[in-house]
Amino acid sequence: MIAVVTPSILSGSIIIPSSKSAMQRACALSLLNKGTTIIYNPGNSNDDLTALDIIEKLGAKVERSNNCITIMSNGDIHPPAFINCQESGLSLRMFTPIIAISKNTVKIIGTGSLLKRPVDLFSHFFAELGVDINAENGLLPVDIKGPLQPVDIEIDGSKSSQYLTGLLFAFAKKADKLTVITVRNLVSKPYIDLSIQLLNHFGYKVLNDQYNRFLIYPTTEINRDISYTVEGDWSSASFFIVAALIAGDLSLSGLDFNSCQSDKKIYKVLDQIDADYSIHDDILKIRKSASIKPFEFDATDCPDLFPPLVVLALAANGKSVIKGVSRLYDKESNRAEALVNQFSTLGASIFVKDDNMIINGGKKLNGGIVNSQHDHRIAMALAVAGLITTSEVVIEDAESVNKSFPDFFKLLQNCGGVVTLKT
C-alpha cells in the first residue's frame, strides 16, 4: 500500500488504541491462568492478533466479542510442533520461555523482519534451566525442548528487557521455591514495571530489587476468574502528540496518566519545549506551538519514541540530540539507518555520532517518495512529517502500520489529515 500525505492542518478528538505491550502480556498471563480471563478494550494490531493465535495454539480457548475477549485456560501448556510468532519481537521473546515449560520439542518460526532479529541470547541461559535449544546462526527458526526448571540465574539485560519478561512469566508459573533472576545492564526498565504490574494483577508475587535482582515467589495455583482492561498506548499517542504540536490542535483520550509504559516519558520533552498542553477529565489537549525549542532527550529506555521525536526535532528551531541509538539496530528495520536515510530524502539534516542522533531543525522539509522499510514506526513518522512538508510525501510499504496501529491513517484523516491510500 502507498500512502500519499499532503500538508494539512489538524483538529478534533482521537481515542488512542490499546497498548499492544499490555495486551500481549495479558494474553500470555491469561494462558497461564487456571480459569477464565476477560480482557476489556482489547487491541487489534497484527502483534495483538499474533499473541492471541499463539495462546490458542498453546491450549487456551478464545472467544471474541465487540468490546472484550474471553480466554479460558486450564493453565497448562500444550504446544504443537510449530509456533509462528509472525513479526512480533515481544511474542518471540516472551512466549519462548513459556513454551519451554512443556517437555515437547517445538520449532519456533517467524516471518519478515523477525527472521533477521537475533535469538542467541536464549542460548546463554536456557542450558542452565534444563532447556535444549538449537538456533542456527543465532536466528530463527529455533528448536527448543523443555521442561524449563526455574533456578537462580544471571542474565544480560542490555539487548532487550523482553527476554526478562518471558523468564519472569515462566518462573512465576513454575517456581516451587523462592527463585532469583539477577540482571546486568537492564534496558527499558518501564516495560519490566509493566510486566510486574500485570503479574501482580494475575495473582503472582514478583518483587523488583533495584532492577538488579528479581525475586519470584512460589504461588499456589487456584482457579481464578480475572478481568483486565487494556490501557491506551503511549507509543501510538506519541505520533499524534507530535502531529498536534506541529500541525494543529488535538484532544487525545484513552490514556492512563499513571501508566508504567516507557513512552509516557514524552512528557519530559513537552516540558522542555514549553509545549501548550493540558489534562482535564483524563483528556490530553495539545495545541500547535508557534515556535518549538530544540531539546535533548535520553531514549535508551524508550527507543520507540525516536521516530516521532525526530519529526518534532526537525520542526524545532535549532539542534536537538536524542540519545540511545544503540537500541535502534535490532528493530523491524535498522531504525537508525532508516530514520537518517528516509528523512534525508525529504531534505532533513540528521546524523549519528556514537550513541546520539543529532537533528538540525528549522529548515522546511521537502516532499518526496520515501519507504517505511517495513517498519510501522518509520511509516507513521514519515506521515506526520508529511503534514508540514512543502509538497506531498509518498510513503511506500505504508501497510506496515498494521503491526501496531491499523487505524493510524483513518484517524489521521478523521482529524483533518489529507491522506490518500493506494493499493
What does this molecule look like?
The protein has 423 residues and is α/β, with parallel strands linked by helices. It has two domains: 2-17 and 232-422, UDP-n-acetylglucosamine1-carboxyvinyl-transferase, Chain (Alpha-beta prism); 20-229, Enolpyruvate transferase domain (UDP-n-acetylglucosamine1-carboxyvinyl-transferase, Chain, Alpha-beta prism), CATH 3.65.10.10. Helix content is 30%, strand content 27%. It is built from twelve helices and 24 strands. The protein has a four-stranded mixed β-sheet. The protein has a four-stranded mixed β-sheet with strand order 2-15-17-16. Helix 3 (89-99) packs parallel to helix 5 and helix 9 runs parallel beside helix 11 (376-385). The longest helix is centred in the middle third of the chain and has 14 residues, at 234-247. The radius of gyration is 21 Å and the shape is globular. The protein starts with a strand and ends with a strand. The model has no long low-confidence stretch (mean pLDDT 96).
